[in-house]
Amino acid sequence: MSNAGFIASRRRFLIGGALAAGGLLAPGLRNAVWAAGSDAPEKTQLRVGFIPLTDCAPLVMAALKGFDKKHGVSLQLSKEASWAAVRDKLTSGELDAAHALYGMIYGLHLGIAGPQRAMANLMTLNNNGQAITLSNQLKAQGVTDGVALQKRVAASEPGRYSFAHTFPTGTHAMWLYYWLASVGIDPFRQLRLLVVPPPQMVMNMKIGNMSGFCVGEPWNQRAISDNVGYTVVTSQQVWPDHPEKILATRARWVSENPHSARALTAAVLEAARWIDASDANRRETALAIAGRAYLNTKAETITGRMLGQYEDGLGRRWQDAHGLRFFHDGAVSYPWLSDGIWFLTQFQRWGLLKQQPDYLAVARAINRTDIYRQAASAAGNITVPQSEMRSSTLIDGRVWDGRDPAAWATGFAIKR
């Protein structure tokens, strides 16, 4: 091909990538754009942020096991102190991609979680594996479930009890609000709400700054191990196999680096599949991420819940049927549109959005099913669902399937 021909071809490729990033091409045409050009990653050294939580594991193992090199990229992992730091570095371009809260990325795209940026979700990193912890002070007062908590809150002045989550539009805020409302507590009218970085949760509860929090592991188990609090409900009890963290980046980064985006996603997909392949792999993962460079905690604090072995700090132990999942035959990893739409309904429910969005259009713009399909093909032997929607039954018995989101958003008794 002549130099002029190459330049013209490259220009067509970049224009096609930009259109795909905006959701303006049908999935088949998006894939055709990719197939038309070279598949070499445009950028090979990728700076990827993470928060020290168990569910950063696919990123860590992608780097440690060499899945990144297999796909022609090198992950330079950057440990961050808070989700706000992840947000700021991701939007400024200091990070190429990040382990991120599902709802945080949707909030950024809409301009309600910081300066508006067009964002992209390349894949879901995990399902389940979060929890709501209550303080031992509440346990001493006989509060061991949601019913008892509701009675105590109802008998107290508004704001008497403080509850923390990790980011205003994040997953932990949504699980906390949903569960509280399901037991009859209005989080905005009856409680004092705090935003606290995950590694600071246990210490803040220990010194009496909060009565409860919602966060990822290992901090719920750590509260039990340190005799500070107990698990009142897991996130998978709120929504079995719920979406949690995602592999996030900016839409512009994808349009400028579509092959790097595919390579990064394929590498993390392979790591997720490897982790879920056996308990031995999960144990190895727990040992690896426990290190100082990652979670900096004891491996045994991570391993139990990584294997689905739960205790609640109240004397109950069980093997969780919906424990932390990273792959599950690809069902975890696929960026279901219905998952993204659910977060939009909760933003509407809790007054974070002032008007109903175009639910499906927003989800299609953010959740890059086109990149995911390419990555699944590159990783090999990964089944891609035929539908972009899935159905789930939540703790209050309501069935979510992505249809009629406006009615879902406005159909709750407790809302703002």
Automatic annotation (TrEMBL):
<keyword id="KW-1003">Cell membrane</keyword>
<comment type="similarity">
    <text>Belongs to the CmpA/NrtA family.</text>
</comment>
<keyword id="KW-0472">Membrane</keyword>
<keyword id="KW-0997">Cell inner membrane</keyword>
<dbReference type="Pfam" id="PF13379">
    <property type="entry name" value="NMT1_2"/>
</dbReference>
<keyword id="KW-0732">Signal</keyword>
<protein>
    <submittedName>
        <fullName>Nitrate/bicarbonate ABC transporter substrate-binding protein</fullName>
    </submittedName>
</protein>
<dbReference type="InterPro" id="IPR006311">
    <property type="entry name" value="TAT_signal"/>
</dbReference>
<dbReference type="InterPro" id="IPR044527">
    <property type="entry name" value="NrtA/CpmA_ABC-bd_dom"/>
</dbReference>
<dbReference type="GO" id="GO:0012505">
    <property type="term" value="C:endomembrane system"/>
</dbReference>
<keyword id="KW-0813">Transport</keyword>
